[in-house]
Known about the structure:
Elements: H1 6-12, H2 27-30, H3 46-54, H4 66-82, H5 99-115, H6 121-136, H7 144-161, H8 164-179, E1 188-189, E2 192-193, H9 195-212, H10 218-229, H11 253-258, H12 263-278, H13 294-302, E3 319-323, E4 328-332, E5 337-341, E6 347-351, E7 357-360, E8 363-367, E9 372-374, E10 384-388, E11 394-401, E12 403-404, H14 412-424, H15 430-443, E13 450-460, E14 466-476, E15 483-488, E16 512-513, H16 518-524, E17 526-533
Antiparallel strand pairs: 1-2, 3-4, 4-5, 5-6, 6-7, 8-9, 8-15, 9-12, 10-11, 11-13, 13-14, 14-17, 15-16
Amino acid sequence: MVLATVPRLLGAVDRNPYRATYGCFDREFWHYRTSAFASEMYQEAVYPLALVYNRQLPGNRWYGEPRLRELAIAGMRFAARNSHSDASCDDYYPYERALGAAVFSLVAAASAYCELQLDDDELRAWLTRRAHWVAEHGESGRLANHHALAAWGIAQTAAITGSLELADAAEARVRQVLYWQSAEGWFEEYGGADPGYQTVTIDALAKYRRHSGARWLDEPLRRAVAFARHFAHPDGSYGGEYGSRGTYHYYPHGFELLAHDDAAAAALADGWLGAIERGHAAVPGDDRLYAHPLASFIEAYCDWAPRRIVEGEPPACAQVSVLSDAGFVVVRAADEHTVVSAARGGVVKHFASDGAPRSDAGLIVELTDGRVCVSQQHDRSRHWNWRPTADGGGELTVSGMLEPARFETATPLKQAVLHLGMVSVGRWCRTLVRRLLQQRLITGRKAVPIEFSRRMRFLPQGDKAYRVAIVDQIRLTQAGVQVRRMSYGTDHQSVYTAATGVYQSAVLEPWTDLGEHVDALNAERQVTIEREWPA
């Protein structure tokens, strides 16, 4: 799967050593000239390129190809040239000094430097400056995956340079990430648990554990993997719209590093291999995302653990896991699996015994005034309740108000104002600008006068299966509010996250048009909708 992307990597990079952009992987900048600056996130491609050059992988016709080594080094040198004087870098807009782009490219460059066994004063000096900048800076909002990657990148640079100061900084950053870990095992991503980004954090921490011998990471990693195990679906797919950031991310290397001691890690790694084989694995196909997991895939192959602990048989009857802090209810039986995010208003993904996934990413409504609102906004303080029932099943109720969805796009004027502001004033207040943009695109919310409640009943059908009965009530709470159309979506995402919207086989599920209920809702101010899975 990785080798199929190598032509794309080689097509993305500027291969002309006579150009100032030699080694740049941001084709929008160096080739199309539609971007005014190069995003350094793209430079993480240097590490998979170095791995393909240096590893004798099956079918790897690029092994030992000198040009790959040359271009990987050129990519590292461009990252150094493209950095600001303090070694920070940009991702979405000029003078952003984005921690995310800084840590992804730092990890990739440091890893490629070690993989290629370089001894280069210029690159070593740049890695040192970047590692110090990362060690000294944070960002608004808690994104544990960024900080886990920061720790791993700093630790690698410490190993390259022999810096004890950087080694201490790496350990301090790891301990910061552990401070953000819930007792349930998840790491915080914008106030909640996102199974996709959980795998990124596990990947970085497991690498750090192997590198440093930090056995005090064993228990936090065990809990992190146990949490992630809930979200590996029967078809091998993983994650989805129910996470706090709605991602399908999957980084397998961390699980392979833990598979010989942890049955859940082995099951996660093997399940993903099955998903690839059956075509159910998510495909991060766009230019910004496709290089993200490539190195982890190669590393997982190279570090595959032949000695693995095998999980026991799946439960014979439905087993319920209520993750109250994260706001998840997970129901598993031998042949069925359901994940519900109460924190996201009852977003649910259900796998029946027939293997067909059924997804409901929540209610989406368009009002006659043009506003679009959704039930899926993430809120761990949302009112919800789980009640076991006498028949061995249970009932989940969740309620809340709909909130507006921002499907905002850039315009020439918006871009001009943002770029002018960053060039003139914004460069000195990066955290404030980021916080304002987060509030506008991600965290900001204001309730719409539409109340939504969902009741889900899990009805056992013998030992190995159950039915899911769903009853939704929608109520207009303010005079004058009128609905134009509404649906149950299967794969929509209401707030901006770069890693959402990728292809995964479940996204082909059609949406459910609720047009037949619109007139009754507008006339009677409320409507009840009932359905059952399997239908």
